[in-house]
Write a structure and sequence with these properties.
The protein is an alpha+beta fold. The chain has 2 domains: 3-46; 59-132, Alpha-Beta Plaits (2-Layer Sandwich). The protein has 5 helices and 4 strands, in the order αααβαββαβ. Strands 2-3-1-4 form a 4-stranded antiparallel beta sheet, with helices on one face. α2 (22-30) packs across α3 (34-46). The two termini are 21 Å apart. GO terms for molecular function: DNA binding; lyase activity.
Length: 154
Amino acid sequence: MDDLTLAIIDGFQHGLPICANPWQAIAEQLGCSEQQVLQCLQQLEQQGALSRVGPVFEHSRAGASTLAALAVPPGRIEEVAARINALPEVNHNYQREHQWNLWFVLTAPDQAHLQRVLENIRRDIDLPLLDLPMLTGYRIDLGFPLGQRSRVPV
């Protein structure tokens, strides 16, 4: 991994600039061009090493959310994952090795909207679904220090 990519990943796991042009702000902090920052991020995405850049919100202040899981037959996993991913309320989903093998997080403006989405999934996908709303929140300030001069707290 080149020095610029390492600096972007390490330096902005926390404290992503909140401004009209965060890529320019990152570039200014790192002494490079905005285009170089964008190229690094695009390369990481193309390599499958990056899936998202953006803030993580306190879900209880942004509406309603839940963790959900489906028990999907192996032959349907790709189809069902694609249908789940197509929903605007889905933040991310992932496959697990378990009877409940497709897990995803839903976020909606309010609880009524969230329940409608869950009911639509139950009806349209026609598979067992677990709704696992968070009862107690824990803040995990997760970061991965990279390089010897990392700014990420351990």
